[in-house]
């Protein structure tokens, strides 16, 4: 990798592990990848990927880039468009130009004004007592009541 000279300002992307950011794989702006794409390192997408994308580290989708499949990543920053489900273990950041058409699952979600999401959002870690249990109980009561109503009609 290269190191910026003193005149350049170095601005690393978010890195969940606090290790130095080094992009291992770059999909250039004129590149179209068809098929599943997996890497153990950081991935930077500037072009188009038509296939599942998987990395245990940081995935960056730049403005103008497109991913037309599901994503699994350790963390992600999306500025382009994604048509598919996005599963991120840690932090997902959607910038103002991000467009996601699919379900989103992550631990931490950062959404800038202007980002667009169409799909279900699930964030791990919610522990509000009684919410999920009450839904199950009420649907069970409805089923039990319906079954007893059927018996009384005979």
Give a verbal description of the structure.
With 154 residues, the chain is mostly beta strands. It has a domain at 23-126. The chain has one helix spanning 131-152, and strands at 23-27, 32-34, 37-39, 42-45, 48-50, 53-55, 58-61, 66-67, 71-73, 75-78, 81-83, 86-88, 91-94, 99-101, 104-106, 108-111, 116-118, 121-123. The strands form three sheets. Strands 1-4-7-10-13-16 form a six-stranded parallel beta sheet, with no helix packed on it. A six-stranded parallel beta sheet has the order 2-5-8-11-14-17, with no helix packed on it. The chain is globular and about 50 Å long.
For the sheet with most strands, the description reads:
6 strands, parallel
Strands side by side in the biggest sheet:
1-4-7-10-13-16
Tell me the fraction of residues in β-strands, as a range.
35-45%
User: Which secondary-structure class do the elements indicate?
Assistant: mainly beta
Mean pLDDT across residues: 79
- Using only C-alpha atoms, the radius of gyration works out to 21 Å
Spans with pLDDT under 50 lasting ≥5 residues? 1-20
How far is the N terminus from the C terminus?
Answer: 79 Å
- The helix tally amounts to 1
So what's the overall shape? globular
DSSP strand tally = 18
Share in helix: 10-25%
Order of helices and strands: EEEEEEEEEEEEEEEEEEH
């Amino acid at each position: 990798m290269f190191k910026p000279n003193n005149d350049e300002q170095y601005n690393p992307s978010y890195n969940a592990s606090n290790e130095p950011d080094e992009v291992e794989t770059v999909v250039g702006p004129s590149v179209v990848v068809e098929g599943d794409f997996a890497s153990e390192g950081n991935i930077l997408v500037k072009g188009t990927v038509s296939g599942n994308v998987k990395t245990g580290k940081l995935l960056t989708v730049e403005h103008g880039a497109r991913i037309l499949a599901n994503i699994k990543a350790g963390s992600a920053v999306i500025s382009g468009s994604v048509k598919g489900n996005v599963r991120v273990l840690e932090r997902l950041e959607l910038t103002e130009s991000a467009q996601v058409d699919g379900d989103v699952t992550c631990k931490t979600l950062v959404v800038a004004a202007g980002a667009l999401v169409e799909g279900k959002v699930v964030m791990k870690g919610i522990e509000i007592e009684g919410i999920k249990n009450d839904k199950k109980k009420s649907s069970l009561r409805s089923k039990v009541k319906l079954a007893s109503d059927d018996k009384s009609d005979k």
